[in-house]
Amino acid sequence: MFGGTFDEAESCAVSLAKLFGRYYGEIIRLPRIAFSKTRENKCDLTGCLIPRNFPYIAFEQSEYDWSHVSLFGFYRLLSLLCSKNRKSVISCALQDDGIDESLLERLIEWAGIGHPAVWRNLRSRNSCGVEGSSGRRLRLRSLTGKARTGHP
Question: Among the residues of the chain, which ranges form H helices?
Fold first, then answer.
């Protein structure tokens, strides 16, 4: 599921919630990965649309802040807190709680999907893009918001 399995992403969310005092235990089961069958939601971190039937992380009950965090928003938060360039206190604490360093790296890599360096790696793997009406393949938007186009 976008960088990790359902269980891996949820266990990482649980570990992070414990660090920040937002873990409620097994009875309430928050945080958890959820999806809405009836409506679209907005990510509380990024403002991005979370489509109906699409997974997101719920750190709180539906009526409260942090109840709808997109996977992208969660992975971006991890990339801020757990820099790949140096060990952070958060990444060490997550690893102490049983989160594997390679899992953190995978999830953080997904956070940079719009970053030009990651874009080049994806393009070299021929793994993204959709055919546009002009016959060109439309590429993911970079962080600057400019669309990238080109022939496959």
Answer: 6-19, 71-81, 89-96, 101-111, 116-124
- Give the list of residues 6+ apart from residue 44 with CB closer than 8 angstroms, or none: 65, 66, 67, 68, 69, 73
Residue 113 pairs in a beta bridge with: none
Q: Where are the domains of the chain?
A: 6-111, 116-150
Taking Cα atoms as reference points, which of 84, 90, 113, 100 lies closest to residue 17?
90
pLDDT in tens, 80-125: 998 777 788 999 999 999 999 999 988 888 887 645 444 444 444 4
Contact 40, 14 (CB under 8 A): no
